[in-house]
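During the reporting period the student researcher (J.K.) took over the structure-prediction task from the postdoctoral fellow and processed the backlog of single-chain submissions. One of the processed entries is reproduced below for the supervisory committee.
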Amino acid sequence: FPGAEIMITVRNQLTAIQSFYLSGGYFLKGVPRADDFNRKRQISFNEYFDFSAKYFGKSYWARYKYKNVLKTLEHYFSKNSIHILIFEEMEKQPDLFSKSLSTILDVPSDEILMLMQKSPKLNARQSAVSMKYKKLRTLIPIKSISRSLPGSRFIIQHIEKLISKSTKEASYTYSDEQIEKVSEIFRDDNRYLIDEYGINVEQFGYST
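J.K. obtained the following structure tokens:
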């Protein structure tokens, strides 16, 4: 693809890891499909973290090894054609983000900013109440109960409607050991962003 322009977005691994967990990483995977009950069991954040840290090369964490991603791209494309955008800039400094995107796409930055402000937020983080309810559903066969008890389906639907209105987002606090482990795994990747591409990720708390 001669003349191709490559665009990737990076994100602080600490928030990316937690976001992935809350987007479905909380379900136990990799067990035999015949064991349907365990397959749907919700694992704790610490269980998810320990497993992913031990086997990060085969987990979703491998996508956050930005140096590996960029080295692969550099094998096929020049550095000048590789453009890096920062997730945190989009979130906290949309005016700067829109200008960066404008340079790449050759579209007026004010148009980009307007679209960003008008567009609804997609894939919003789950609420803390929703996470607790999902964990409860993995422990109790709610579907079986709803089929056997008259009127229970209506009650469940009402409960789920109330839960959907909860606005307090789920979040987890990292231990000092976990923060150090993330830094150990990804520090070199973040330094590569700074040293090779001049991307100031330190301002957004990336491990360096």
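The committee noted the following: The mean pLDDT is 82.
J.K. will present the remaining backlog at the next meeting.
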